[in-house]
Amino acid sequence: DTALDSGFFVRWMAAAAGLVDREAERLTELDSAIGDADHGANMQRGFAAVVKALEAEPPGTPGAVLVAAGRQLISTVGGASGPLYGTLLRRAGKGLGEAPQVTVAELQAGLRAGLAAVRELGGAAPGDKTMIDALEPAVAALDTSLAAAAEAADEGARSTVPMLARKGRASYLGERSVGHQDPGATSSALLFAALAEVAR
Ligand code: ADP
Ligand code: MG
Ligand code: MG
Q: Any signal peptide, and if so, which residues (predicted)?
């Protein structure tokens, strides 16, 4: 099993920032259909802050990279997604502990703990049309490969189209939320696409 060091995790966050920049308009478009049209800007602001913080003070372990990234997302993103993504990364980072290198299996275990914390914080379950619908299958597929996780996240994001939103702003729309892809599930797929990209 490949060992992933802190440099890999910094590159992951930089790649995520790059994909978020590239797809910001799309994220905002999706959020304008069933939310308040700020998801692209929220994610751009958050990940720009993450990259800046990691450059200013590069953490020495994978765990510390994720904890620092999560902290930035919580403090810079005003929307619901900031605390949720922040919790995912911070909790995953804590799970990785002080190890200088981690395996994909250890990353999966960390992300499982992060995902549980996101579910506890947001109260959403699979099928509620949220980021959980992309994160859950992606984390589950990590024991196959990073590419499989990226593919599962994308499929999960697309699976939100016919769903009725039960959490977040989109839930205010009731039936009118049906037929649109969830913005947060879409950005979650970007996060896993970035992970697979950095490993290639
Ligand atoms: P806001 O809705 O506050 O403007 P964003 O637009 O940045 O925040 O993020 C919206 C995304 O956050 C949604 O598309 C959804 O995926 C996710 N989300 C919202 N509420 C929850 C929740 N309770 N649990 C999980 N994810 C949620
Ligand atoms: Mg929004
Ligand atoms: Mg908002």
A: none
Q: For 61-97, what is each residue's pLDDT tens digit?
A: 999 999 999 999 999 998 999 999 999 999 999 999 9
> What is the value of pTM for the model shown?
0.98
* 168 close to ligand 1 (CB < 6 Angstrom): yes
DSSP assignment of 92-145 equals HHHHHTT-SEE-HHHHHHHHHHHHHHHHHHH---TTSSSTHHHHHHHHHHTTT-
- Please state which of the four CATH numbers 1.10.8.60, 1.25.40.340, 3.40.250.10, 1.10.150.20 is assigned to the domain occupying 4-199: 1.25.40.340
Closest CA to 92 of 142, 21, 27: 142
Q: Nearest C-alpha to atom 1 of ligand 1 is from which residue?
A: 79
Q: What angle do CA 94, 22, 155 make, to 5 degrees?
A: 65
Whether the complex's predicted ipTM surpasses the cut of 0.90: yes
Sorted by sequence, the CB contacts under 8 Å of residue 75 that are 6+ apart come out as 49, 86
Q: How far is the CA of 160 from the centre of ligand 2 (A)?
A: 16
How far apart, in Å, are the Cα atoms of 21 and each of 41, 45, 90, 102? 9, 10, 22, 28
